[in-house]
Amino acid sequence: MEYNTNKKKLILPEYGRNVQQMVDHLLTIEDRELRNKTAKAIIGVMGNLNPALREMSDIKHKLWDHLHIMADFNLDIDSPYVKPTRESIYERPKKLPYNQHNLKYRHYGYIIQSVVKKVIEMPESPGKEQLVEAVMSHMKKSYAVVNKDSVPDDVIFNALHEMSEGQININRNIKLADVAEPMLRTNSKTQKNKHTHSKHKKR
Fold first, then answer.
1. Cβ contacts of residue 168 below 8 Å, gap of 6+?
2. In contact, 101 and 117? CB cutoff 8 Å
3. Which of 16, 35, 88, 99 has its CA 20 to 30 A from that of 156?
4. CB-based burial of residue 119 (10 Å sphere; 0-12 exposed, 13-18 middle, 19+ buried)?
5. pLDDT tens-digit series, residues 111-154
6. CA distance linking residue 173 with residue 48, whole number of Å
7. Long-range own/partner contacts, residues 126-129 (CB < 8 A, 24 or more apart)
8. Cα 75–Cα 81–Cα 85 angle in degrees, nearest 5
9. Shortest CA distance to 82 belongs to which of 73, 91, 92, 93?
10. What DSSP assignment string belongs to 82-127?
11. DSSP letter at 10?
């Protein structure tokens, strides 16, 4: 008895050994017209065996590419699509560039610091004052994520003053909304639940 482990390794196992044998036989057909007809028949079988591909918009193109892959790119047929190359199929994806923003206040995020630059360019107006207050409220919320203690308004005022290089007028008499308080209560509740759950497990 011959085991699969002793047989030739399948290039695309999802189609099974029978389809691979069909493709191997296809490579031996000398008559081009018969080879084309046989290739189309194999494509039909492949489509039925791999229903997951039906959800793809370019299913036909994908099947023909798979046929060429199983033929080790040695198949000479009249394909409705450009024959893929080994390099194009197995090409390594390009390395994704990562943003290298040099942020002094990382916990406030890049977007907030970009907004601060835009606010600096705005003319003085009640709308600008409201936007500055909204920015500071968001900064307070962001700060609370990395700092589990209370967030004094002065910390936010000083941070915005430094981020804007003193170019934004900050009303230090306003009281920022306690946006951090709900987060602090949530974190405290989460820690309490974890502690309670841990005690139950020990029992």
1. 116, 119, 120, 132, 160, 161
2. no
3. 99
4. middle
5. 888 899 999 999 999 889 999 999 998 888 888 887 767 788 99
6. 72
7. 129/169, 129/171
8. 55
9. 73
10. PPP-HHHHSPPPPPPP------S-GGG-HHHHHHHHHHHHSPS-HH
11. P
Question: Hey, what amino acid is at 28?
Answer: T
To which residue do tokens 């017209």 refer? 33
pTM of the model: 0.46
Task: Supply 48's token pair.
Answer: 């039925």
Give φ, ψ of 31 to 5 degrees. -70, 120
Which position has the token pair 């040695």? Answer: 74
Contacts of 136 (CB under 8 A, 6+ apart): 153, 156, 157, 160, 170, 176
Closest by CA to 11, choosing from 56, 82, 52, 65, is 65
How far apart CA 48 and CA 182 sit, in angstroms, is: 55
Which tens digit of pLDDT belongs to each residue from 2-31?
555 667 789 899 899 999 999 999 999 999
Q: What would the two tokens of residue 19 be?
A: 């389809």
